[in-house]
Amino acid sequence: MEAIDNAGTHDAGKVSGLERSALRRVLALLDNPPIELVLWNGEVISAGRGKPAARLRIQHRGLLLRLLYRPDLYFGEAYSHGDIEVEGDLVKLLEYVDPLEQRGARRRLWERLKLRFPLLELHALAHARSNIHHHYDISNAFYRLWLDRDLIYTCAYFPTSATSLDEAQQAKMDYVCRKLRLKPGETVVEAGCGWGALARYMAKHYGVKVRAYNIAREQIAYTRERARQEGLEHWLSRYESVVDEVRLMFDETFVRSWRLYLAGSIAGFHTGSLQLFRITFNRVGINDVPWTRDYLYGL
Description:
alpha/beta; Nonspecific Lipid-transfer Protein, Chain A; Rossmann fold; 3 domains; four-stranded mixed beta sheet; two-stranded parallel ribbon; 15 helices; 9% strand; elongated
């Protein structure tokens, strides 16, 4: 029995020809990016195109099949738990492994599944409140470590590359207000107000009345307190500068999860798979919107 156990353990460490072929096929589908895959036994699979931008270490065989089947689902879990290690540029790695073509194919498949199994969408709606509490009600102190001074958790507007994050968030709020062409005395309804920075800005600088809604308890408490008191950095670099404090507040899995999330957001914007749209709607019969957008950029 001992000889069989030893043989089984030894076999588990080998990489099969099928596994090598599958990984090379994945790299080919990704247009052979400058990435090295380091497997559990130390074997390296790469496209052999110059110096790698990153090395992806897969710590055990059991993870490989899951990654090949649903990388969008299992990569994040594996990275957060330390089953995957990334050496080099994490953002570049995520840019290379998330091409638009594959995202489009995956999205089409998901749309077909929703048509066939409509309960999938109902299930997501039922858990929306839970997801929001899981993401936002984890401590305002955590977000204070790496967001701007007003805790704005949406994309900033950088007029120049020298603009700081705080300045860019102020510029974004003013941009939104000008786009809405706010006038004193108007009423604004904001659904999902975050920590209330935009609501306060609109009321303070444009003289409008704002009714803001949110279901995240921590954010609402902070927003109400700030309202009573007042009567090119997108966030990853700031996060990394305080990562030791985050680790003390939570744990290593949390640290890795948020690092991957912030890096993935950067990669998504770089590749075009993550975008932000601001759309303005007018009431019927109101057609006095300016013909040009000059009024939006008068910073």
